[in-house]
Write a structure and sequence with these properties.
The complex is a heterodimer of chains A (202) and B (162). With 202 residues, chain A is of the alpha+beta class. Chain A has 2 domains: 2-46; 65-201, Immunoglobulin-like (Sandwich). Chain A contains 3 helices and 10 strands. Chain B is an alpha+beta fold and 162 residues long. Chain B is 18% helix and 41% strand. Chain B has 2 helices and 9 strands. In chain B, the strands form 2 sheets. Chain B has a 5-stranded antiparallel sheet. Chain B has a 3-stranded antiparallel sheet with strand order 7-4-9, with no helix packed on it. The chains are: A alpha+beta (202), B alpha+beta (162). The interface between A and B is large, with 57 and 38 residues. Chain A: This is DUF4402 domain-containing protein.
Amino acid sequence: MIADDDAIIMQFLFWVDFCKSERAAALCFMKYLCLLIFFFCFFLRANAQPPAPAVCNAQGSESSNKLTVVSEGTLNFTLGTLNSFETAQTYSNNIRLNVLSRSARYKVYIAAELSLSGSPSTAIPLTNFQVLPVLVGTNPQNRITVSNVNLSGAYQQFAQRTNATGTSGDVFDLTVKLSGMNTYTQAPGNYTLKFHYRLCHY
Amino acid sequence: MNSFLKTIILLGWITVIIPSVSIAQRYVTRSRTVQLYKVLDVSLSSTSSVFDFSALTNYENGITKPGMITATVKANVPWKLTLTLGNNTLSPQITPTPMPASVIGIKASTSSVYTPVQNNAPFFVQNNPGLYTVVFDLRAIPGYQYETQEYIGDFYFTVSQQ
C-alpha cells in the first residue's frame, strides 16, 4: 500500500517537474490522459469488427494463418449516369485475397458497413451489393467451395476449405456487383463501403 | 517515475499494436467509395394528343381525357415537375379570337381540381426522392367563341430539384 502511494506521489512529482507547477501539472496530466483516451477510442473504432461467426477458432501462428489483400481494382464505384442506376454495375475481379491457413481447415467470411457523412434518411441497402468469389488457379484436392453472398452487417461465409493450405495459400478474386439502385431513394453523395474479411478455423 | 513511464509506454504500444494486428492477420478491413450522383429524369407517354370537338355535347360539356399524359419521374432528390407552355396562346395566334391555352385544364389523376394551363401560374406536382409514375387527366372547355380551326400548343414538362 505504501509502495502504491509512493508510486502515485512519484508520478505526480514527475508531472510537477515536467510541467513546472502543481496546477499546470494537473492540467497537463489531464490533457495527456484525454489525448491517450481519444487515440485509443479512435483506433478501436477504426478497427471495429462485426461480431465473430459462431465458430471461429484461431489455430497456429498468425504468420502461417492469415488473410492478405493482394490487390485491389477500382476504388470508386460510380453511378454517374441514368443507365448506371437502371442496370446492375459489375466491378469484375475487384479484390484479390490470399488465404494462408497452414494449421487447419478454414472458412472465410465477409461483412460490410456503409456510411455517408450527413446521415441521409435513406442509405443504400447493403443487400444491394453482391460479392461473387472465384477461386484463382486450380486446386488438385477439390476441397474448396465458394459461394456468392449479398452483403450484410454480419459475417457471411463465402469460401471454405476442408483441409489446410500449402505454403502459398489459396487465392480468390472477388467481383462486386451493385444492383437495385433503380428505386432512386438513396441520397446522392460519396458513401464509404467498408469490407470486413475474416479467416476462421473450424 | 519509472512505473509511470512504463504505463505511458504500454498504453502507447497498445494503441499502435491494435490496428496493425487487425490489418495484417486473421481479419482485414478495406474501404471503397460509392459515388452516387444527383439524378433528375422525366419521360412522358400519352394515350392521345387530340381534343376533337366533333359533337355539340363536346362544346356543351368540354372533353375530358383521363390519363391522357403519364410522366415517369426518376429522382434521388426531392423533385418538382412543372408544366409550362411555348406560348400562353395556342397556335395560330393570328385568328380574330386567339384561343388561350388556359381553356385546357390539367390535374393529377389522384386530384379532383383542374388547373388551367398557363405560364403565369404554372401547374406543378412535387414529391420526395424515388421512382414515380404520375398520371395526368386533361380537360378542354373552349366554349363557342373561337373560330373553326385546328389549334396547337406545345407543353413542356420540366423536372427540377425542390
